[in-house]
Design brief:
threonine racemase activity; alpha/beta; 10 strands; Rossmann fold; 2 domains; TrpB-like_PALP_sf; pyridoxal phosphate; about 325 residues
Length: about 325
């Protein structure tokens, strides 16, 4: 097993991504706006901060890791092109970063990925290859093309440069709100939470970090609780509306970071994800995709089960929301 990512690597990532990646805002969730929109606010609930990774040029946090990886490559490697496999947001991150470095980008995506994400990837210059719904389908196809054409792989999560890029979010949260005592992050393959938790634990011995995932794709919680890396089937994980969190297993390197630095993993229901999305649409200025709303769902509905805290930062990991789903959520109201 590789050594874990260091704070020095995270600081280097900060320098590398500066000027391309946005230092996203951290906004307090206004309980008055929630009440005005018809949402009940629990008495005694902690203050909630929203880390708006939807503000990135591609609408999600994935640009941080993708650009940190691609920007580290030399010119000869860049000239051969890069490849990845992704359900959507990492696809856009790689396509955007490759365009910045004038490199060819090939993206292997599952047939279940939202059309809006497939089209966005193409508009950024990515060459999209569609395969079956299972995580292994897209990974195997990407590895096949990598070997055939000499592309460089930009893994979606199981890579130290990708982890270091995602870790910069943790540094920013602590700088923006030093009083935060709990951070909630979506978890799928583990790139985001392994990075955030590594940065936070290197900088503070007081802040807790928890992962959040859909109960219908709860492989990370099972892995964390059993301390054994488990895999769920594609049939299981594709049941959730949170398309970005359908990965069937944590990455091995990510799991090592999670076991070392993460304090726990909780799951949320589909109804709770929908409700959190409506809160963001009606009581904030942010647009969330389902995967980006799971951390808020945990803060709203499970805060009493989490470590006692006065201020929670939730990572809104992406905002690439299907327009039809947005209309449906707004029509349903609360």
């Amino acid at each position: 097993m590789e050594e874990l990512v260091t704070l020095d690597e995270i600081r280097e990532a900060q320098k590398r991504i500066e000027g391309v990646v946005v230092r996203s805002g951290l906004y307090e969730l206004d309980v008055k706006r929630m009440a005005a929109a018809g949402f009940t606010v629990d008495e005694g609930a902690p203050k909630i901060w929203l880390k708006a990774e939807s503000e990135q040029p591609i609408g999600s946090f994935k640009l941080r890791g993708a650009y940190n990886k691609i920007a580290s490559l030399d010119d000869e490697t860049i000239a051969r092109g890069v490849i990845t496999y992704s359900s959507g947001n990492h696809a856009q991150g790689v396509a955007y970063a490759a365009r910045e470095r004038k490199a060819k980008a090939v993206i292997v995506m599952p047939i279940t990925s939202p059309i809006i994400k497939q089209e966005a990837t193409k508009k950024l210059g990515g060459e999209v290859v569609i395969v079956g719904p299972a995580s292994k389908d897209r990974k195997h196809k990407a590895e096949e093309l990598e070997a055939a054409h000499g592309y460089t792989m930009v893994p979606p999560y199981d890579d130290r440069l990708v982890i270091a890029g995602a870790a910069t979010i943790g540094v920013e949260i602590l700088e923006q709100a030093p009083e935060v005592d709990l951070i909630l992050s979506p978890v799928s393959g583990g790139g985001l939470i392994s990075g955030i938790s590594t940065a936070v634990k290197a900088l503070s011995d007081k802040v807790k970090v928890f992962g959040v995932e859909p109960a219908l794709a709860g492989d990370a919680k099972e892995s964390f609780d059993s301390k054994t890396l488990v895999e769920w089937s594609a049939e299981q994980t594709t049941r959730t509306i949170a398309d970005g969190l359908r990965t069937q297993s944590l990455g091995a390197l990510n799991f090592a970071h999670i076991l070392k630095h993460v304090d726990g993993v909780v799951t949320v229901t589909e109804d709770e994800i929908y409700a959190a999305m409506r809160v963001l649409l009606l009581a904030s200025d942010l647009v969330p995709e389902p995967s980006g709303a799971v951390s808020l769902a945990a803060a709203l509905f499970h805060w009493k089960e989490l470590p006692a805290s006065k201020q929670i930062a939730v990572v809104i990991s992406g905002g690439n929301l299907d327009p039809a789903l947005r209309d449906k959520l707004l029509a349903e109201g609360v």
